[in-house]
Amino acid sequence: MILPNMYVCGGILDVPFDKLYDIGMRCIEVDLDNTLLEPGQSVVSKEIAQMISKEKERFRIVIITNTLTDGFTARAERIAQSLSVEVICCRSKDEQKPNIWPFREGCKRTGIDPSFIAMIGDQSSDIEGAVRAGVYAVMVKPMAWHFWWNYLRIDKRCRDFMIHRRFRHIETWGVS
Q1: What's the predicted TM-score (pTM) here?
Q2: 11 vs 72 pLDDT, higher one
Q3: Residue 67, pLDDT score
Q4: Range list of β-strands (E), the chain
Q5: Which of 31, 72, 131, 140 has the fewest CB atoms within 10 Å, i.e. is most exposed?
Q6: How far apart, in whole angstroms, are the C-alpha atoms of residue 175 and residue 87?
Q7: Do the Cβ atoms of 98 and 114 come closer than 8 Å?
Q8: What CATH number has the domain spanning 6-169?
Q9: Which long-range contacts does 66-74 make (Cβ < 8 Å, 24+ apart)?
Q10: How big is the chain by its Cα radius of gyration, in Å?
């Protein structure tokens, strides 16, 4: 299993953006459903919209989402437009996360090297694709409770690795 570089014990509002900036990140790639908003919603919360607006002063922000239909693509594009950020909609199986294509497409569109990009996501596909593409991977808790099974599985493995320090250090925020 591929593990994140950073594990945040909370949602996107708990991500330490100052720390990401201090370690050289200049672009944030972010998953849409369950990271920016709950699946099926079409508007991000006021708090998340304010956070995105603030962080756009330091980072290029790109939404990366797996979309299956024109309706999902149009929804993602409307959300990105409302936040004044770019969006990469992965329609085919060959493009969808965990494939490295969307992460490399983000590099291409922004002109930023993968080593200066952080991906924030709630699913193993977000983390696996980011790590394989050379992007710094940040895992957050999913917004919708019925997706927590995947998070909890990764959560346990991350904690086990941190406790035993077997393979590499995983930076953790919000763990007591």
Answers
A1: 0.83
A2: 11
A3: 76
A4: 6-8, 27-31, 60-66, 86-90, 117-121, 136-139, 171-173
A5: 72
A6: 31
A7: no
A8: 3.40.50.1000
A9: 66/90, 66/96, 66/97, 66/125, 67/91
A10: 15
